[in-house]
Amino acid sequence: MSETTTNNQAVDESTDPDLQAEFDARLAADQKVEPRDWMPEKYRKTMIRQIAQHAHSEIIGQQPEGNWITRAPTLKRKAILMAKVQDEAGHGLYLYSAAETLGVSRDELMDMLHTGRQKYSSIFNYPTLSWADMGAVGWLVDGAAITNQVMLTRTSYGPYARAMIRICKEESFHQRQGYEIMLTLCNGTEAQKAMAQDALDRWWWPSLAMFGPPDAESTHTAQSVAWKIKRETNDELRQKFVDMTVPQAEILGLTIPDPDLEWDAEAGHYRFGEIDWDDFWQVVKGNGPCNRERIAHKTKAWDDGAWVRQAAVQHTRRASQASPSENLVLSPSDAGAA
Amino acid sequence: MTPLLTYVLRLADDNLIVAQRLGELIASMPDLEEDIAVANIGLDHLGQARNFYHYASELDPDGRDEDQFAMERSEREFLNATLVEQPNGDFAQTQVRQFLLDAYQVPLYGAMTASADERLAAIAAKAVKEARYHLERSSAWVVRLGDGTPESFERVSRAVDYLWPYAGDLFHADDVEVELAESGVAVDPATIRPTFNATVAAIFATANLTVPDEAYVRSGGRTGFHTEHLGHLLPEMQSLYRAHPGATW
After folding, report:
1. Which CATH superfamily is domain B3-243 in?
2. Is the Cβ–Cβ distance between B63 and B57 less than 8 Å?
3. What pLDDT shows up at residue A325?
4. Tens of pLDDT along A74-109?
5. Number of Cβ atoms within 10 Å of the Cβ of A281
6. pLDDT by residue (tens digit) across A106-137?
7. Between chains, do A62 and B35 touch, taking CB under 8 Å as contact?
8. Is A189 an interface residue toward B (CB < 8 Å)?
């Protein structure tokens, strides 16, 4: 990676044994790592990769839900959905800010997203084909995200952990809203109930895959657990999610699309079938149903906005040259009265 | 329909249609801050629309609710001004449309807080605070674009030329509004035009833009005579609701 570091960062490529010992002691004592603390370069890079991927996921995640804003079936649902998509943009904003504390700029991160050098969650490469997907995405995708994110409120990097506390509060609200959409559909007409089942059928397996590859095959898990970036493994989190979600599906009267799903009374867990990892990796590699559209939409918005950003910069430059001390904020109510 | 119900639906429809237009833009703005802003402003307009529809529901002899007003009426029954149904176009067109609407709504709601109708006064008291914030934002953008680069100046000038005639539709008053204004219920658009003109003149001067000459205004939105654009916006908005008659969502 080529991210630059700014001078307020404690940059040290060497492995000074004293600094390393201090860092290790900090983690052992469950204290947070803060932006000015020394940290191993690999830790910094891992943190940037993870926070950026999370931020990108929030931004790209606006698209599948934004897809239904104009067609929401009631004004109340339209308002809730708009607020939710707005929350996601807000999450993106504070996650990019958290990443910036590690010495990388938002513009660099955007560029890495647009050019495919950094990823976003593969779940957003699936299409939202019916209104029930607004329910299923909230219930399952946000539900899976929260399972992961609650753990991240205790992650070792301070700014990320603090951002996650706020994000989790809003995400759990979104998850309840999604479940409530499903509940309403399941208590509705036959067509609505069929819509809900179809959405569950399509979102169940991709949601399980959101936790990432099995522990045995995960390239990042072991190191991330050692650094206390992750506090639980992919498989542990996935199991937690399944145990939480299966009873919720029963309340809805929907069938989880897994013939191998069964309750293991002895272990106190639901056992579930094999995830199709080949398909998962195809989606990660760019061959999901919507990969091209998602990035094309994002880069088009960015490119189309170039002249707007240039105009804003040019105006600010000119205004500050004309009257450096003047407040640039306009007050049209005053202007109108003049 | 009683004159008051007609008037309240005009107010509601302006806000719903512009909210729908802003909703089309989410995740398509020039930067993250603008994505957040467009959702925020869209939500404000949607909230104002719903407040007016709730009042309309009480006034309606058929007791239609907000969704019936939004989803079951046809193009010819919508009473919004033609300005708000104009397409988003480029960023300049979106911001100029918003600016013209904001410059109208600030004095409209300001005057409406003194309405003899308590419900209207209460809705306006909340809405005017939002409208002032919207106007501050859209004015700042008009100035940035007008006083930005040659390209942004060109684009914002084109947007003003395109949208200016539609702004006139906001001020069209028929007997419904004139009579309600005489009884102190409605705001006579003629009384807020000077404030609108002053806001436009001041902001355009700062933005190096020329205020177009008084265009001939082909009014129509207030009586359900729209441009062709509304006939594309409504089917999209109403498609799911209409596909499942009587369903609860």
Report:
1. Ferritin, core subunit, four-helix bundle (1.20.1260.10)
2. yes
3. 52
4. 999 999 999 999 999 999 999 999 999 999 999 999
5. 13
6. 999 999 999 999 999 999 999 999 999 999 99
7. yes
8. yes
d(CA B109, CA A17): 67
Kindly report, residue by residue over B16-40, the tens digit of the pLDDT: 999 999 999 999 999 999 999 999 9
Average pLDDT over residues A324-331: 48
- In 10 A of CB A333, how many CB atoms? 16
**A66:B140 CB<8 A:** no
Per CB-CB distance under 8 Å, the chain A contacts of B139 are 330, 332, 335
Closest-approach residue (CA) in chain A for B205: A335
A59 CB neighbours in chain B (<8 A) are 27, 32
> Cβ–Cβ contacts within 10 Å for residue A28, how many?
9
List chain B domain ranges. 3-243
Report ipTM for this prediction.
0.97
* Chain B CA closest to residue A314: B148
State what percent of residues in chain B have pLDDT above 90.
96
Instruction: State pTM to two decimals.
Output: 0.93
Which residue from A minimizes the CA distance to B49?
A75
Contact residues, chain B, for A67 at CB < 8 Å: none
What DSSP designation does B228 have? Answer: T
Chain B residue whose CA is closest to A69 = B23
Residue A14 has pLDDT above 70, yes or no: no
Chain A neighbors of B46, CB-CB under 8 A: 75, 78-79, 82
Give the pLDDT of residue A3: 41
The structure tokens listed for A151 are 């753990």
The alpha-carbon gap from A238 to the nearest alpha carbon of chain B, in Å, equals 30
CB-CB contact of A14 with A29 (8 Å): no
Question: Residue A181, by phi and psi: left (phi above 0), alpha (psi -120 to 50) or beta?
Answer: alpha
What Å distances lie between residue B149 and B97, B136, B152, CA to CA?
Answer: 20, 21, 5
